[in-house]
Amino acid sequence: MRVTDSLKYETFTRNLSKIKGLVDTIQTKIASGKKVLSPSDDPVAFSSGIGLEVEKKMNLQYERALNKLKTLGGFYDTAITGIHDLLTKAKEIAITQASSTMDAATRKSSAEQIKGIIEQLVTIGNTKLGNTYIFGGEKTDLAPFTLNDDFTVTYTGTVDVSSVFIDRATKEESGISGSRVFISDTNIFTVLKDLKDALEENNVEGIKSSLDGLNASLEKTETNLSYIGTYASRIEDYISYKETRNLNIEEVISSMLDIDITQAVTEFNVLTNVYQAMLYSMAKIQEMNVLNYLK
């Protein structure tokens, strides 16, 4: 088949258009920093990239939840340490006032100190983080502890605490309930109320017997401090894992989708030179065609 000048010109222009398309594409890739811009560029890499981006976003959500638990853990540690300090003070009062050298007046004065300790413990029990009462268990919108006129204390929270997802199939408890900290096993408020009453009544035996309850309360508080320490450490480990996982995901996404700028610029320059040369050739061809026509 005879190849006409018209066919040659059409082929030339198609190739010129193709080169121009390649120049535009590599320019867009350089501007975006991505070598895969659409599924047609690399279906497998594009699909994998989407999946990894979804996992990365989910991990960021889990990280936010974990950081909230981390903050919560700090509040618990401060609160329970405060409880331990107050119980230690109450025990010192009990030991001092159980001595035969003390009298009804000193004991009555010490009873006022115990009242103050009970009030401070109620305040700790009603600690808030934002709008959340941290010792309310699953009831976090209302103050869980109420100090009554006779210095008994009522707990209206729950025994259990709520849980949050920290991974697709993993939940973590949102701390520790006021029931566990103040009420269960040994009721700290009852122990202190009994000590207050014994001091007011100048009941030396009652003061001495309160020491067993105070020791049990301190032991329970130390156990809870240990629990919160382990809890905080576990949350830190989860956060560290999520941060490392997201860095790994970013590296994999980058290796699959990000462009090699040096290589891309080199390719762009080569294609640009080819395109410019073809434009020059086309201009010459058009110039020759005009001269032939004039002849």
In short:
72% of the residues lie in helices and 6% in strands. The protein is built from 7 helices and 6 strands; from the N terminus they run H-H-H-E-E-E-E-E-E-H-H-H-H.
Overall structural class, as computed from helix and strand content, comes to: mainly alpha
Tally of contiguous helical segments: 7
Q: For the record, give the distance between the C-alpha atoms at the N and C termini, rounded to a whole number.
A: 28 Å
State the name of the first-level CATH class of the largest domain: Mainly Alpha
The largest sheet, given as strand count, sense and whether it forms a barrel, is:
2 strands, antiparallel
Q: Name the overall outline.
A: rod-shaped
The CATH architecture name of the largest domain reads: Up-down Bundle
| CATH structural fold name of the largest domain | f41 fragment of flagellin, N-terminal domain
Strands side by side in the biggest sheet:
1-2
Strand and helix order: HHHEEEEEEHHHH
Instruction: Write down the Rg.
Output: 38 Å
Spans of 5+ residues with little confidence (pLDDT < 50)?
none
| DSSP, total strands | 6
The CATH superfamily of the largest domain turns out to be: f41 fragment of flagellin, N-terminal domain
Could you explain how this protein is built, in words?
The chain has seven helices and six strands; from the N terminus they run αααββββββαααα. It is mostly helical and 295 residues long. It has two domains: 63 residues; 202 residues, f41 fragment of flagellin, N-terminal domain, CATH 1.20.1330.10. The chain has a two-stranded antiparallel ribbon with strand order 1-2. A two-stranded antiparallel sheet has the order 3-4. A two-stranded antiparallel ribbon has the order 5-6. Helix 1 runs antiparallel to helix 7. The longest helix has 55 residues.
